[in-house]
Records
---
Amino acid sequence: MKPSLNVSPLEARTRFRLQIKHAVAIGPGKADVLQGIAETGSIAEAGRRLGMSYQRVWSLVEAMNRDFVEPLVLKQRGGASGGGTTLTPMGQQVLRLYREVERQAQQAIEAPLSELVALIRPDAHP
């Protein structure tokens, strides 16, 4: 028999992706990249924490830096100071605003989501 993990749908965290205009989007992946960079000061370390390659993280950073009115992330190459990566004030603001949208959206859907989940058969499979 194949092992399975029984997790209530309410235990799974709902994630939100915001598409703005026609192409600019910020969602959990980009927000987690910003958070990882803020916490570690490193694109490589943020990638390791998220299970993403350096190239994948860097491509998300480049997209965000291109899509917003100011860069969200600054990268300093190695050298005497050792290099590093930091969020700009705009990057900090975008991360804070996204997390606030995420928090408020989660609160807004809590009751109807609970009601909807209660209508799903217990033996239903994804």
---
Amino acid sequence: MPTAQHPFELYAIDSLLTEEQRAIRDTVRRYVNDRIKPEVADWFESGELPARELAREMGELGLLGMHLDGYGCAGTDATSYGLACLELEAGDSGIRSLVSVQGSLAMFAIYAYGSEEQKLQWLPGMAAGELIGCFGLTEADFGSNPSGMRTHATRDGDDWILDGNKMWITNGTIADVAVVWAQTDDGIRGFVVPTDTPGFSASVIHKKMSLRASVTAELVLTGVRLPADAILPNVRGLKGPLGCLSEARFGILFGTVGAALDCLETAIDYSVSRTQFDRPIAGFQLTQKKLADMTLAVGNGMLLALHLGRLKDQHLITAQQVSVGKLNNARMALETARECRSILGGNGITLEYPIIRHMNNLESVFTYEGTNEIHTLVVGEAVTGISAYR
């Protein structure tokens, strides 16, 4: 009998990584296997997450803002950050979201657009996981069209007054600082908002069936008074939040590969041990076709992610290329999870196995930080030169 190979062995994935990248990947994998996977089904079922505890642990590992330089950040290359996201999402999309929102949205906004004083005040504590950040862009009526946001900031002497609501905000109720985007007379601007500022409140969004091992909140800002130096000085307009989202989507295009791979590994192991009609179901042609097709899909998604990682490390990547990765890999991962669920039959719907949890989570990943439809239109515009948004 031939020896079974891991799906990525067919692609010789390790040969495409540097020794440092493999070491970072393996460190995160050990953490996820030891700390996340044994507990995450219970967190998902209860809808609770020890987020602050996990943030401190991941801060000690250097995972928060790991692709940023200085201010206590690890300063790794982009591909290493992507590989970390892959391993974190193999644990759970909610865990990767915690790291992604902290590092690629809240921290990156301050790092890329903030003043030196803002960076020194917030980034070291956030890198250590002692301070938690959130990112307030999406509103209940303005997701794919953030330019229509109703949250606004008005001048009052030297101060700013913020009013508005933000929806679907990861880390919202546990955050120490929120990066909030608002309409001003000078266009859309970003503000660094300490969450203990009077008028700021956050409430948990309950009754979720996806990303249950993640803190999701609504933010309400009512007459929040901020000093003049709370504004992010180095960006105006949608360029700011969209730049942050491009950073976060890069993590997603790796992370979704991790969720898909965890589903595929589970389905392979199950099919080898599950016996029907006196033989393992892995020995049936229909099952092997499913596994072979998914091996190609996940492997090709990994190659795409690594290619985009190299482009980002060379400072050559474009927002449209990030959309290609997010569109392809989120779609691939959701389809893979659904097919793997079918291989496990009835067992596939229980939290004893990770597949239904990944499948539910990926329904959110398929939609957030640019829906499948919006990224489709980004790619469509890129290849036709015609915008079809309106």
